[in-house]
Amino acid sequence: MPDDLPPFSSNESDAEERQLCVRCLAPNQPSAHFCLDCGCPLSSYAATAPFESLFAEGHLYRQAVECPYRPIILIGMWLIFGCAGLAGLRFIANGEDAASLFGGGVVLLFSGIILTKTTRRFLQLRHHHG
Length: 130
Ligand SMILES: [Zn+2]
What we know:
The chain is mainly alpha-helical. The protein folds into 2 domains: 12-45, SH3 type barrels (Roll), CATH 2.30.30; 49-128. The protein is 64% helix and 3% strand. It contains 5 helices and 2 strands. The chain has helices spanning 12-17, 44-48, 50-66, 71-94, 98-128; strands spanning 19-20, 27-28. It has a two-stranded antiparallel ribbon. Helix 3 packs parallel to helix 5 and helix 4 runs antiparallel to helix 5 (98-128). It starts with 11 loop residues before the first helix and ends with a helix.
């Protein structure tokens, strides 16, 4: 690969050829919605599509999920995703059309997975470090 590319693209046509990840500067395919290297969202599609935006949110918390070595992180995750899960539940309870039922379900599922992962990881880390 050529390494004479500027670190930041100056216009849209440059971005078409190869987009550099805003986080780790890894070159990605123009069609890529997420960085292959670090999973950072790259396209406006990634930031706006409902499910992918959940994924983008998850990217922010991924580090916390993978390494929740302090209780405050676990508490924070429960506050954030507990609220998200409750909102999802409320969506399902009040939802009159399929879209809100589906949206609520996705949010609830996503929150549940994140919290399960974080909690399990936290307990593992606590166990290992005595
Ligand atoms: Zn990246």
